[in-house]
Amino acid sequence: MFGSDEEVATQIPTQAQSLVEGSGAVLVSEYKPVADVDYLQELLAIQQQGPRAIGFFGTRNMGFMHQELIEILSYALVITKNHIFTSGASGTNAAVIRGALRAERPELLTVILPQSLKKQPPESQELLSKVKNVIEKPHNDHLPLIEASRLCNMDIISQVQQVICFAFHDSRLLMETCQEAKNMRKIVTLFYLD
């Protein structure tokens, strides 16, 4: 690689680099202060009494430990009476679904699929068969999955007050989803896996 040490220190690893090299080599990016409005919005959310509707998004590419942590977080949010919205893919979504199901409050989990159930992989279909509230989008079956997923994510965002996302810095669709949620004045908690 060419360039000064300063240029190298600000580069963010790709998903592939993180999976191969691990996250130990990750360099911390420069601190950027958050606008006062964002702080106030988060403070109000913390003080808000009662459960919230929370949308979970995330990558399919993650290790077992990350999936376990997401499952525990999902479980904890459901037992505290929060309503979870997610999609039906493997990785993050599957972990969210497993955690919510373990909480034994089926009415507090809604899975919105980007396309019809028959378009989901067999392992996803098996997990989804245990979910009470599954919303299919068969009218999107003709679309490429990325476009159907973009529409699905916007649908989920429109129904929640808060978004939790697990992504890599180069997860383009997830970054777009988080930005759209921020534009809609939703509280966004973004966990980077790289």
Secondary-structure map:
Blueprint: H1 5-9, H2 15-21, H3 36-47, E1 53-58, H4 64-79, E2 83-86, H5 92-102, E3 109-112, H6 122-128, E4 133-135, H7 145-158, E5 162-167, H8 172-183, E6 187-192
Parallel strand pairs: 1-2, 1-5, 2-3, 3-4, 5-6
Helix pairs in contact: 4-5, 7-8
Structure report:
With 194 residues, the chain is α/β, with parallel strands linked by helices. Helix content is 43%, strand content 15%. It has a 6-stranded parallel β-sheet, sandwiched between helices. The longest helix is centred in the middle third of the chain and has 16 residues, at 64-79. The radius of gyration is 18 Å and the shape is globular. Mean pLDDT is 82; it is low at 1-9 and 25-29. One of its GO terms (biological process) is methylation. Keywords: Methyltransferase, S-adenosyl-L-methionine, Transferase. One of its GO terms (molecular function) is methyltransferase activity.
Helix content: 40-55%
Question: What's the order of the H and E elements?
Answer: HHHEHEHEHEHEHE
Rg (C-alpha, Å) = 18 Å
Q: What can be said about the biggest beta sheet? A: 6 strands, parallel
Main CATH class: Alpha Beta
How many runs of DSSP E, i.e. beta strands?
A: 6
Give the second-level CATH assignment, the architecture: 3-Layer(aba) Sandwich
Question: What percent strand?
Answer: 5-15%
> Helical element count?
8
Distance between the termini: 20 Å
Q: Could you say which overall geometry the principal axes of the C-alpha atoms support?
A: globular
CATH topology: Rossmann fold
Classify the secondary structure makeup into a structural class. alpha/beta
